[in-house]
Amino acid sequence: MTEAATTTRPSEATTSLTTMPLGRALNAGMRAALAADDHVLLMGEDIGRLGGVFRVTEGLQAEFGEQRVLDTPLAESGIIGTAIGLAMAGFRPVVEIQFDGFVFPGFDQITTQLAKLTNRSEGRLQMPVVIRIPYGGHIGAVEHHQESPEAYFTHTAGLRVVSPSTANDAYWMIQDAIASPDPVVFLEPKAKYWAKGEVDTSARAVPLHASRVVRRGTDVTLVGHGAMVTTLLQAAALAEGEGTSCEVVDLRSLSPIDYGPILDSVRRTGRMVYAQEAPGFTSVGSEVAATVMERAFYALEAPVLRVSGFDVPFPPAKLEGVYLPDADRILEAVDRVLAH
Amino acid sequence: MIPPDDPALVRILAADGSFAPTPAAEPYLDIVDALGDADLERFYRDMAISRAFDRQATNLQRQGQLALWPPSFGQEAAQVGSARAARAQDHIFPSYREHVVCTIRGVDPVDIIRLMRGLTHGGWDAADPKNGNTRPYTLVLGAHTLHATGYGMGLVFDGRTGTGEPEHDEAVIVYYGDGASSQGDVHEAMVFAASYRTPQVFFLQNNQWAISVPVATQSRTPLHRRAAGYMPSILVDGNDVLASYAVTARALDEARAGDGPRAIEAMTYRMGAHTTSDDPTKYRTSDEEQAWTLRDPLVRMRAFLQTRGAGDAFFADVDAEAQALADDVRTRTNALGTIPAESMFANVYSDPHPLVDEQRRWLADYEASFEEGAS
Questions:
Q1: What is the ipTM of this complex?
Q2: What confidence tens digit (pLDDT) does each residue in A144-158 have?
Q3: How far A198 CA lies from chain B's nearest CA (Å)?
Q4: CATH of A212-338, one of 3.40.50.920, 3.40.50.300, 3.20.20.190, 3.90.740.10
Q5: In terms of DSSP H, where are the helices of chain B?
Q6: Is B158 close to A108, i.e. CB distance below 8 A?
């Protein structure tokens, strides 16, 4: 035990609430992981001296050194491929991909190597590698900087895919992802990096792969992930003003999916809308909708609807407000499921 | 065709087996001089045995026992020399034609057979001491060069190399070919290796053909000169086991000493097909194959050993051992069973995964439903 831990009085250890932005919560979670295990490494472009383009790793290289927080050459396949080799050598690399649209040069290493090595080695090799990807829109950026590539990864066996939507989840989910013996694609809703929330550093609320009800309601179940959870909550608040009670479920884990809270909710409300920034065709929302149809068909009063990004390339930033689902588009879908 | 000799070429034995070092080989003669008769005979024995195994595996494929076989025929000297140069503590990252390297390091030939028979995607445990730190094959060209580089970075970070003790300092050798040399991953691996000064040797077997594409299509520049943009790079006659041994031993020891990565281009020839699914007569001439047959690595080493006094008894003993191994491989291959259906659900993840578990249960129930119906 560290000296600090042994001198902490019980009363201080039981409650540790701090308010911080989601990006700082990720930083704090990674700092805890780096401090707890000297074989945890951070790797990525501009993450050391600069602290990352979003400053999520700010200060960590100064604290832990250049061999723990690596400013790598600018080559995504190289970063992920060497992270795999480091995992073979007993390290737990945490890779930062600078933007969602930049992950694809590393896609082969993620899907044909990282995802399959435990299986290929017949279980002899674990691959505790975390791939952090800032994803999604709402920041008015240029092409390749606002995409939602989650379906590529959820379709690949061997990967786990998660996305926190709050500071508290960010703090705990990054530590749980680093502790996982399996590769985890960790999707960070970049629009929420600056959103403050209360972080309880004394204990995690739910496991890494749990979905969670974040607002109780009785008429319609709204489900989504990442930054869209905030939009769902806005829609729910507006709907309440019109007399409709919406329950909101934060998916949190995109693979595997924890269907318990979703099915429980749909069995009570009989209606469901899934909202996501990603294009809707063969999307996470499609998978959830299909599974709810399979498992809760007789509880449904209306077809399950998806509100998604359009099936076009992410448009120039001046049109992102049209492309990205907002509270109005979600409420339009709520009206449609209530029409049945 | 046979490429013209480059002044950078390290060759010690001429094609007729005579001891005729090229000027570039001079710095390596001390390493060759240190080899005793037992070492030289070991090299020949390795090459002969692995050729017999390769021929047996090819035959087994032709008889329907294997889905596929990528022959190592013709590349024995490059593989024996480099594999014998590696120290016990070194780490081997093969591509998928390194049967000679793998068996020298201790991998059971039948474990390679199991991969090519469709029983596993891997085949052996790199962590089992009997396998000599040899990683399972990687079928995506060049992808593993990055894994080797990452492993080398780990050796540096953990202080397992560069201490100045060659008996303990660990190094990595990664094998790839002329086709893979065009892959971006190989170049990125060299970028990272140079940046982090990994204790690593990039061992390129230029066997002249990437299936049907000749090396001239891959590069207008000799491949060893490409690598020289990243690190010291050596050209060696890959059909000369002594030269292959010497340059690899020197490169690995320099790398383990902390001097950074090294590249080797071993000029050799794939005397067989790319795989058993391939038909080389569609893209290369018998004249070319004949020209390379005259440079056969086994013929060369056999002639050299004969000039040093190796007699018929030695060669007969080698032939007998090779035949015994080939027979054993055939017997054990024929005894390989199949694998249970539920094994496909194993090891997809290390931790439990609800979707995989659910599908495993479903398949078991589905299959059981037929058993009930039949009874």
A1: 0.96
A2: 999 999 999 999 999
A3: 30
A4: 3.40.50.920
A5: 29-33, 37-62, 76-85, 99-105, 109-117, 143-157, 184-196, 215-218, 223-227, 241-254, 286-293, 297-307, 312-334, 354-374
A6: no
